[in-house]
Design a protein that fits this description.
The complex is a heterodimer of chains A (about 170) and B (about 70).
Chain A: H1 3-8, H2 12-34, H3 37-53, H4 65-87, H5 94-99, H6 103-117, H7 121-132, H8 137-144, H9 148-168
Chain B: H1 3-16, H2 30-40, H3 46-61, H4 65-72
Classes of the chains: A mainly alpha (about 170), B mainly alpha (about 70).
Chain lengths: ~170, ~70
Amino acid sequence: MELLERFAAGDLEAFESLFRQHQGEVYRWIMRIVRNPATAEDLTVETFWRMYRAHARFDPAKGNCGAWLRRIATNAAIDHLRRARREISLPDDFAAEARQPPGEQFELRREILRAMNRLSPRVRAVILLALVEEEPYERIAQALGISENAVKVRVFRGVRILRKTLVQAGVYP
Amino acid sequence: MKEPEIDDLKKLLKESLLPVRGSELERDLWPAMLHRFDQRTFRVPWWDWTLLAAAAGLLFFFPGIIPALLYHL
């Protein structure tokens, strides 16, 4: 039996094979949205947990396990952003933390993080994927389960809110 | 909104929030996955079984307490 068929039937060994094949890819995708390695690791496990629970709904004939996983991962990451938004005032940002910009640059980054945190989690995920990580709209649309046009609308909406928030804070992009 | 406005903001965002495209997973997460399975598996602790056995024994040897118990439920 094919690996995907065995997984759909609930075979744990098949699940382990799929886990080992896709864990790196899922981690990288989540990292682009949450931008923190520890959180990305937790959410990778959460993604596969959701995948395992939904094994009976997976159709091996459709076959694209990677795309299905990316969609589950995106939802898990957005759920995290939603929780984090309620709990902390500024989002985690591993890449930006690592760079430690001095003085004025630090203030600028703080304002940008604050503005990003004002976006809804779904719009924030789209802005990070489309503008910072430069993922193609088609891939983002697949991961969110929406059309490319809807992605463009979210980008425009996000850019408008960010510009407005930054201008209010005295930053002119 | 014009494309240059998006490009300006994109440049600003990319300068402040570095892309994390190159980030790689540094450890195997399968042990963490197994731990997650263990956490979610429903297990009844041994002391719960002990309490259940004691309650069942009590009801068996002293059936007179059943109406009183039902009255208080």
